[in-house]
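Reviewers of the previous submission asked for a worked example of the structure-prediction workflow described in the proposal, so we include one complete record here. The input consisted solely of the amino acid sequence. No template or homolog information was supplied to the procedure at any stage.
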Amino acid sequence: MLLALFVLIGLIWAWRLIMVQHGRLAFWQIVADRPNEAYDWFVADPDTWVIIGKHDSQVPDLKSQEGLVGPFTLISPKAGEGLAVFGNEDRIDESQDRFTEKYGSRKYVGPSWVSFVSLGYPIAAVLSFGADDGGFADALGFGLANLGYLLLAAGLIAGHFRALGLTHRSQTLVAGAGCWITGFVLLNI
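From that input alone, the workflow returned the following structure tokens.
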């Protein structure tokens, strides 16, 4: 059961790393709120950003190009179509910081301590899972199902779960349903 505990904690940590730290969530939330300003920003900085049509034939080539990250999707009324945005990995952080400073009216509120503390619930669920109750998949499924319950409750009550970068009710509910379904499947295989 200890292995299931470490895997669950690793999954939670990886989720947080991808959603909050690596994904620059605050920047992309501001881009979603201000797509026309973001479009102008990307066009004005061609050394950092490459913008092409979302279904352009160059997208696969750019995906594999060394030094570019993306594609990110931008829906801008000004552009009139969905766009694929790629960033120069050496310059993207600086450009995102400048954009956030200029247009940062919607700032990502850091994780709440309530979210972090409540992550103890699925961890305790895995710890309470006895060796006689089943194997690794059962213990991990039990932890994921309880994480799903936690996210569903947070989505219904608070509308977010910021410890995992879930800032909207719909995100939180979908993540909760996904965790619960995965846990249910692992428990019943």
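The two ends are 17 Å apart (CA to CA). We consider this example representative of the routine output the project will generate in years two and three.
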